[in-house]
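We treat protein structure as text, and this decision shapes the records that our systems exchange. We quote a single record here, exactly as it is kept in our systems:
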Amino acid sequence: VILARGASRRMGSPKGLLPCPGQTGMSFLRAIAMAYKALEIPVVVVTTSDLVFGYQQELVGTGAGSVAGFPEGGETGRTLMHGWEMAGAETTHLWAHPVDLPLVTIETLEFLKFHSSQYPAKLIRAEYEGSPGHPVILPVAGLAGMQEHHAWHLAPMREVIALALARGHIAEPLLVAVADAG
């Protein structure tokens, strides 16, 4: 799930459409979507209703994913909920990837994918030089267990994770050290 529901008010234009440094002709959104496509991980872009067309245009011809718009507002939990709905019932894990982090390498994504396959019940999170980052890989089974907590989708990601851990819906997170500052 590419998290792109922010209004970009301070930026003045949608972050996902900004040019990606070092990748000629690529926007942030396209760079992220193409990296996941290379690993055959389906992409769902969750954005605001007014940005759907621009983001769809950005992905034309790539076969890299789908875009859906939802009203602005809410927290990361709500964006993940929308992404989960779009991804479908067969989805086992959600990768939460903010649209403003386009420099994550394919090698890092492959490394995280490997760890997720080895520890499918754990939340997997990239860690660079001791600081946790993105993407975050969440087992859908853990989110399904959260359905009884009606407000989980109104909370920031860190609160969703803390609640899921406290309720035993997900196993202790696995921080995976990566050499990728992106």
In short: DSSP finds six helices and seven strands in the chain. Helices lie at 28-38, 52-59, 76-87, 106-118, 140-145, 157-166. The mean pLDDT is 87.
